[in-house]
Every structure is written in structure tokens, then in C-alpha cells.
Amino acid sequence: MRRKIVAGNWKMNGSQGLVEDLVGYVRSQVSSLDNGVEAVIIPPALYVRDVQSLAGEQVAVGVQNVARWEAGAYTGEVSAAMARDCGCRYSLVGHSERRQLFGETDAVVAEKVVQLLSQDLIAIVCVGETLAEREAGQAQEVVAAQVKKGLAGVSGSAWRNIVVAYEPVWAIGTGKTATADDAQTMHRSIRDVLEALGAPADEISLLYGGSVKADNAAALFAGPDVDGGLIGGASLVAKDFMSICQAMPADAES
Ligand code: 13P
Description:
CATH class: Alpha Beta
Number of helices: 10
Mean pLDDT: 96
Bound molecules: 1,3-dihydroxyacetonephosphate
CATH architecture: Alpha-Beta Barrel
CATH superfamily: Aldolase class I
């Protein structure tokens, strides 16, 4: 059975004040989450320890990025082993902002995935096409290539630690979302690619990200191949984040 996941990627936002507010609110509301969703809080790495008290059956903590190396003289980097040591269960990999602003290639994504799997962490591998690629009719081909190359080092039982997040670049932080049909179509196509790679495709959770808000989450999450969401801006507002967690249908085909 696939996990249902709603992950909040704070990006480079937040403060100790925000952490306190969010932790307090999530703690007070989490017991009302009765749809089996796992809420994953992904703050900047400096705040990981501050949200760790929420971690439990329904809440997990993650990092936004890890190094592609194991350990050593890599000033400024955080390793997968450190993320695990500090109680994280998840890490994002290959977010489009990392790809665009930090030159992260599919080969680097693949190396980071291998680091995460070596620590038994769950990699949320982010993929998505630009507007130009969508308008040129290349969206599925671009996303398929990202999935294949980013997951090149995965085999056997390691697939159980893979989650794929489809985040069309043109929908991130823009207020534009894919239609629920487009999201479902792309998720189905990603699942087909996973199947062709020999992965247990029906067991792998696929998340949609890009301007998911409390008022559009239910429609986006309704697709049978949409197993949750990766939320940016709205995850900084505790009430909105919890509403989005609640929007995941309890009886989804998963
Ligand atoms: P927004 O929800 O702010 O569009 O961000 C999506 C995202 O990039 C999450 O990783």
C-alpha cells in the first residue's frame, strides 16, 4: 500500500518564532488527522532539531538537500548521515530551485539519491518541466528522462525508500497549478516509467507540487495516482498546511 504524504518545504524561509508557532499548532491538530496521511516537515537544516519533537507516527521531519559526498572537507554541506543522525526520515533531492540556481544535474541527483539510500532515508526526488518544455509538447519526455537518470542507482529493496514529486516549474510559487487532469496524467506516466525501470511502481508514492493551497488541494489529490503533495508557500502557514494534510482523501486508491 502506498504511503499518503503531504510534505511542507519551507525553502529558505522561517525563524525561531515561526518554528514555535508551527510546532504548537501542528501538535494541537495532529490527532485530528484521520486520513492516514503522513505530514512531513522540511524546514531549513538549522531548524530540523527544533521541529523534531513533532516526529511520530503521523509526522516526520526532512531536509531540503544533502551533499553528494559521504563526509569530509566539503565546507557548507550537510551529509545524509547527519540528517539521519538528527532524526530525519526524508530528504528532498533535485528540487527545481536546486537544479536552476545551483546547477544540480540529473547525475548529481542520482549521487544524492545513493547517499540517502545508504542511510536508509527516504528520497523525495523532484522532477518537472519548464513552461517552454510544456508548450513545446515535451513535458512527459523531459520528466521521464529526469526520473530515469535521477533514479539510475536504485534497485531491489531500495525502491521502498523512493518518492517522486512532480512539480511543474511554471507552477512553483506562481499561483498557477496544473489542472487535476494534467497532474493525474503526468503521475500515470511517471508510474509507467517506474514500471519500465523494474520498480514496484504501484508501491511508490507520487506527490504533486506547485501552488497547492488549502482551497485547491482536494481537487489535485483526487487523482488515483496522486498520493499527496509537496507544498511550498502554504506550508509556512500552520493552519493552511494542516488543512492541506486533511484534504487527502482517506479512501484514495493507495
Ligand atoms: P509553492 O507551493 O510555493 O508553489 O512551492 C512548491 C514547491 O516548490 C515545493 O517544493
